[in-house]
Each structure stands twice: as C-alpha cells, then as structure tokens.
Amino acid sequence: xxxxxxxxxxxxxxxxxxxxxxxxxxxxxxxxxxxxxxxxxxxxxxxxxxxxxxxxxxxxxxxxxxxxxxxxxxxxxxxxxxxxxxxxxxxxxxxxxxxxxxxxxxxxxxxxxxxxxxxxxxxxxxxxxxxxxxxxxxxxxxxxxxxxxxxxxxxxxxxxxxxxxxxxxxxxxxxxxxxxxxxxxxxxxxxxxxxxxxxxxxxxxxxxxxxxxxxxxxxxxxxxxxxxxxxxxxxxxxxxxxxxxxxxxxxxxxxxxxxxxxxxxxxxxxxxxxxxxxxxxxxxxxxxxxxxxxxxxxxxxxxxxxxxxxxxxxxxxxxxxxxxxxxxxxxxxxxxxxxxxxxxxxxxxxxxxxxxxxxxxxxxxxxxxxxxxxxxxxxxxxxxxxxxxxxx
Length: 392
Hints:
Blueprint: E1 5-8, H1 12-23, E2 28-31, H2 36-41, E3 47-49, H3 50-58, H4 63-68, E4 70-72, E5 74-79, E6 82-87, H5 88-92, E7 96-98, H6 101-114, E8 119-120, E9 124-129, E10 137-142, E11 145-150, E12 153-156, H7 163-166, E13 174-189, E14 198-202, E15 208-212, E16 218-225, H8 235-245, H9 248-253, E17 259-273, E18 276-277, E19 280-282, E20 288-289, H10 297-318, H11 322-349, H12 356-372, H13 374-385
Parallel strand pairs: 1-2, 1-12, 2-8, 5-14, 12-19
Antiparallel strand pairs: 3-7, 4-7, 5-6, 9-10, 10-11, 13-16, 13-17, 14-15, 15-16, 17-20, 18-19
Helix pairs in contact: 1-6, 1-10, 10-11, 12-13
C-alpha cells in the first residue's frame, strides 16, 4: 500500500490536513488508534479565531458552523467583581466563533467520507519507520494482521501522548514544559448561557469561566487544586463555588441544572522543537500544548496544518522543498506567541498561592492597567482573535 502523505491521528489537525491535501490533489491516508465514535466523543473547547473560521470556509466546511456557531465580538474580564469588556470588533475589526471542536471534527469526518478517502480507524501499534531516510513507511496492526504503508512524508497529528513525537530520537528534540499546579473542573449543562459573551473571572478563591456551546447549552469551569477528584464535586457544590467567583449580576442570573458532563483537565504549557525530523513532521498537540485560558489549542492546530499543507502543495506542484525546510521555524514563531499569550492570560486570571499577597497585587495592577489602556486592550483583542499567519 502506498500514498504520498501518511497522517497519524484523526483529530481535527489530521483531518484538516487531509482536507487541505485533498484540495491540492495530494493523496493521503489517515491512521487513527481509536474508533471514529471515540474521536467524536471527546469533549473539547470550541472558540475559533476568525482565521480558523476562514480556513473552514475555504475547505467548503463552513455551512454548519455559520448556521449553528455563535459569533462573539468580545469577552468580559472580571477581577474581584470589577468588569472590563474587551470589544474585539471595535479594537481590531475581528471576532471569534464559538463552535465546538467536536463539531469541527464531525464536519471534517463527513467531508472525508464523502470524498471516499482512506481513514483507518482502530489501527493498533501504529509505528513510523525509516523517516530519516529515503523510504519512510508506517506499519500498524488491525484484526490481528500487520499492514505497511509506504509514503513520501509522515505527519504526526496524534496528540501529546502519541507515537509520532515519541519515535523521534531524544537527542534530536528539545522539550519545553511548564506544569501548572491546578486544573479546570468543567461542567456541561443544558441551560442558556449566563451572558451573551464569555466571562473570564479572577477571584481570591480561584479562576472561573462562563462559556457556552449553543444558546441552550452552557459550559462552566472553576479552578481546582491539583489532585482533586471529580467525585468530590457534587453539582450543588460546583454551582455554589461558581457563584462565589463570578460578578454578582452574573451570579444572580445563572441558571443551573443537572450536569450532563463533568471532568477535570490539568493545565500545562509544552513545546517540542524542531517540528521536523527527516520526513516526519509534527503538528497540533503532538508539537505543543497550551493552557486553555487563551483559547489557542484548536486554532494552533489549524494554523500548523495550513502552513504544512501549503509547504507540501509547493513541494508536489513546484518541486520546491523550501516551504518544508522552513515549516518548523515558521510554525514555531506563531506557536511561541500563542504560548506567551496563553501563559499571560493564565497568570492574570488564576490564583497562585506561592506568590502570596504580592503576587495578587501584581495581578490587580495588571488588570487595572488593562482597564485604563486602549493599547493593552487592543493587544489582548489582537491575540485572542488570532494573529495573522504572516506574522513572524
């Protein structure tokens, strides 16, 4: 079996790359360890930068996003009850779209199935081989039989714990990692959102976020200490804690109910460098992780594969390897800017007990500066709605 590009991972990064390559006439096969149903069952955030939404439009996948997604022209930041609205449209002329990552994945899967492109789910023991030479290949087992796929390039879109990055010799990678000593306890509920805009709140008890998936389904988060268990958080305890942390007006209008999903997600910042080793490339969570505070994870995955897709298209159309040679540098330039923004949002809005009263005063000064400075608000809006792919 042979293809031009073997893609490991059928999450949004792998599926979007497959769609981009399809549009460029480049044959590709996607290998996924889990079932398609499992991939669609994963609950993830869904704030799309305007550039990411534009990419989905370009791929012919924007119809449901525009029909069901929620356009947001700003966010509210709250510090101990004081509110600052950040008006994206007025500041930078852009917006974001709330559209769940699961729905993006569903649209990409449907488009791939309609094109009759090969996606192999439940592929066990997926292993890339010989990617430092002239004949790369990928092997896997399915139904007890070992299969092999010859290719020109391998792209690892298989997440933080995937096999692609783990297959690269340790000496060839530099890993940058920061682990945050807390997580986000998230609750999904079938109730209207508490606000038309997302609310990011800092409180002495910890961070809180009010977001939504639709006009009838809301997603809420509170910061919890490392090691806490979901089982220790009843719905009532969660709602009581959320009300304490958000501003009084929002707390008074909050509509609660039985949770339909509840989970704790750890927070970390992570980058692997470089993103290429021979014929093997990394993209999405295989290459980087950001804390969700800045809503950058899915958007970085999309920008990675756009850059790589363009480079592969140039290679096959023009026999030029310049884009492939520059992919790692170009993608990492944007990745580190998103890492910085996500770190800054996390630092501003979460409580860090180790920093003490001095640390909280610095956070308050940062928030007060943001309230008073249009330049600071513009910087936040520019980063939140997404930097241009041309930004170096």
